[in-house]
Amino acid sequence: MKKRAAVLCGAAAVLAGSLTAVPAEASGPPAAAPKPAWTKCGTTAYPTLQCASLKVPLDHANPTGRQITLALTRVPHTATKFQGPLLVNPGGPGGSGRTLAGFVAETLPRSVAAQYDVIGFDPRGVGRSRPALNCRPGHFKPVRPDSVPVTPAVEQANLVRAKAFADACAEKYADVLPYMDTVSAVRDMDRIRQALGAKKLNYFGYSYGTYLGAVYGKLYPHQVRRFVLDSIVDPTGVWYDDNLAQDHAFNDRHRAFMAWVARHHKTYKLGTDPEKVETKWYAMRAALAKKPAGRKVGPSELEDTFMPGGYYDGYWPYLAEAFAAYVNAKNADPLVEAYETFGAVDAAGDNGYSVYTSVQCRDAVWPRDWATWRADNWAAYEKAPFMTWNNAWYNAPCAFWPTAQRLPRDIANGELPPVLLFQATDDAATPYQGGAFVHAMLHGSSLVVEEGGGNHGITLSGNACLDKHLTAYLSDGTVPRGTGDVDAVCPAQPAPKPLATRSGSSRGTTLHGLLGFRG
């Protein structure tokens, strides 16, 4: 913990100069938000779920202008004691939060969940909100060019795809893209608060949802009641530098997976030396570059398939079986099945990616000179080959994005009530330093660390120690207070077991299915 906590020591030094604030948008007084008309929309898993919609301004600086629609869900409180709405968000940007409300209400202790109206929502552009963006359907249709631009022709093919996506967004949504950004989504959140008739908002956000929550706290500090941020975005790197940091963290997680496979040599027969197991994985990648599996899984699709293992180790046994079948038995069928389960992008994924790019490309300054991307990503690739170029092409439309670029928000805040932060030390999608920096930036916050944990999204996924702190906070506002920079430490959950020794599913698997990837 000393090494990890040391990141905090330098956090204060970057606060003054790392982020540039943007002046608040000029806006007239918003019209009173009508109360949502809730209707039953329960599912087998979440039978008490209700649905509604809410009109919000496309441009919050023009509150009487064009309106768009947000899709909402609710699990209503049942206890006599009512603590108000608990708005939940799974991240992204581009993640749908409608089902997450049911999961959170079902997974929290019943006595705690019963005190809140748990509210889910599809942010602007997402899912059942309208308009829902889908810039270029089938953008991820296999087989894509190799992500690693080993030749000028491969690089050019990837650049053509990235620019085509940006151009398609510009053509279809020119009137919407200027208002696809974190600040607009935050103002939507406050309209939800108003429509629910709440003086203050409770909030529970994962991944990108932590940045969403932190920006809300900056713009509306006096409307904050209880805020939980889990797996925390580094606000000093929004968004170009954060993605480069991800590359190194995902490479570490991939190597942790290789070591896990090596420990289970008796099951997978891929060797006991993690480095040699990793060599076999890259040999599989090279073979797929010559002959894609099932005409679906080339090298880029292979990375898509194994990347979710960096988010959640519960996927490791399934990925290891596909890996072993391909290497040991020359059987590509399990690999194709794994791709279709974990890596393939459907219409909902096309929508999520459209919103992801729209928000991230608008939110912050991205290099417009491709030479900068090329140099930075080759430098990262030398140390972290697993996902660097795949991630670069995922974000490359931002080099050609049609809207002007904003500046990130300075989220440093001394006006908030205690905020509860959760962070795993080995999280790949939002590396540890994000939690450390935000803890330093949000005065009075409490940081709970999962030591040795590598999953992304760590509360409500089976770690009783973490959930104890979450439950106490949502119950009565209690936060842990440590004597050092970290307020509480919880041990990570055990590593998964091979499929032959596993039984049933887990809350973690359900949660990570809702959080999705790339968030």
Give a description of the structure.
- With 519 residues, this protein is an alpha/beta fold.
- Helix content is 45%, strand content 11%.
- The chain has 20 helices and ten strands.
- The chain has a ten-stranded mixed sheet, with helices on both faces.
- α3 (98-107) runs antiparallel to α20 and α8 (240-263) crosses α10.
- The chain is globular and about 60 Å long.
SSE arrangement:
Elements: H1 2-9, H2 11-18, E1 39-40, E2 50-57, E3 67-75, E4 85-89, H3 98-107, H4 110-113, E5 117-122, H5 152-173, H6 182-195, E6 201-206, H7 208-219, E7 224-230, H8 240-263, H9 265-268, H10 274-290, H11 299-306, H12 308-311, H13 316-329, H14 333-343, H15 347-363, H16 370-383, H17 388-395, E8 419-424, H18 432-441, E9 446-451, H19 464-476, E10 488-491, H20 507-515
Parallel strand pairs: 4-5, 4-6, 6-7, 7-8, 8-9, 9-10
Antiparallel strand pairs: 1-2, 2-3, 3-5
Strand line-up of the largest beta sheet? 1-2-3-5-4-6-7-8-9-10
The biggest beta sheet is recorded as: 10 strands, mixed
List low-pLDDT spans: 1-28
Structural class: alpha/beta
Count of extended strands:
10
N-to-C SSE series?
A: HHEEEEHHEHHEHEHHHHHHHHHHEHEHEH
Q: Which percent band covers the strand fraction?
A: 5-15%
Helical element count?
20
